[in-house]
Amino acid sequence: MGMRGREGEAAGASLEEVQEVHAILLRTYDVDKTEMYDDPPLDSLVRTILSQNTNDRNRDKAFARLKEQWGLWDEVADAPYEAVAEAIRSSNHAPTKAGRIQAILRQLREEQGGRATLDFLREMSTEDASAYLLSMEGVGKKTAACVLMFSLDRPVMPVDTHIHRVAQRLAWIGPKVGKDAAHDLLAEIVPPEMRAKLHINFWEHGRVVCRPIPKCAMCTIYRYCRYDAKTAPEPTEEEARERLQEVKDVQLAF
Ligand code: SF4
Q1: What total of structural domains would you count in the chain?
Q2: In terms of CB atoms within 10 Å, which end of the chain has fewer, N or C?
Q3: Is 120 found in the same domain as 63?
Q4: What is the CATH number of the domain that holds 229?
């Protein structure tokens, strides 16, 4: 057992608990993100930059417009900045993202002998590929981990707002641990082969159930949670799944 509840710094969960939570979430959610696994690493990086501070739909719209309008990343690098910002308008902070994406594309082209690509990451160790990505302007731990996980199939677990919130409420990380530090702490307790699936299922759990004001009546991992302000008495896993299904059915009806 880890050092649960200590002044916010230490990660804490036994392997058994991690395995149980993982198994329950696999039964609960069935999220298909396979389209993201086929991305070449540079597509994955651009897609992840576009996803910052926006939802998946707006990210996908912006990504599709870039691809439709230019086709090749080298063409995006050379396109007028205003045109790139306009193409990705559906994604929040489009001007900042356009500048960031073009700077990365130009940097890569210069370093890689005239072609913007990140394919060389496939040949690198996870540590070296991560260090390379983190050396790029505007690429932080989460973005680097998304490229490594989705595109390169490496055993890392990106930590975004949803993953961070769920991990804190389970007390797998302490209350004062930030997202960057959470990457390393979660890597200590989540076995490599579980990280990608757990990322996707924590993400879904945080998006649908363990929201800022959580819907604890629909929570299948309630008994592992140490959050003080739960919003309902403990449901059985069956009850929680039924309630969750009702919400999904209503969403599908619209
Ligand atoms: S019980 Fe509530 S706060 Fe805890 S993990 Fe479940 S939804 Fe989140």
Answers
A1: 2
A2: C
A3: yes
A4: 1.10.1670.10
Residue that finishes a domain, picked among 128, 151, 174: 151
- What sections of 170-230 are H helices per DSSP? 179-189, 195-208
- pLDDT for res 38: 76
- What pLDDT, in 10s, does the model give residues 49-85? 999 888 889 999 999 999 999 989 999 999 999 999 9
**CA 132 to CA 154: how far, in whole Å?**
15
Amino acid type, 68: E
The confidence band for 145, taking pLDDT boundaries of 50, 70 and 90, is very high
CA distance linking residue 162 with residue 79, whole number of Å: 34
Residue 6 placed within a domain = no
Ligand 1 neighbour 209 (Cβ under 6 A): yes
Phi, psi of 154 (to 5 degrees): -95, 150
Dist. CA 194 → ligand 1 center (Å): 21
Last residue of a domain, one of 151, 185, 201: 151
Q: Is 142 considered catalytic here?
A: yes
Q: How far is the CA of 1 from the centre of ligand 1 (A)?
A: 21
Where residue 10 falls among pLDDT bands split at 50, 70, 90? very low
Ligand 1 neighbour 216 (Cβ under 6 A): yes
In this structure, what are the phi and psi dihedrals at residue 157, rounded to the nearest 5 degrees? -130, 95
pTM: 0.88
Nearest to 49 by CA among 17, 86, 5, 94: 94
Query: What integer pLDDT is reported at residue 34 of this predicted model?
Result: 67
Neighbours of 155 (CB within 10 A): 15
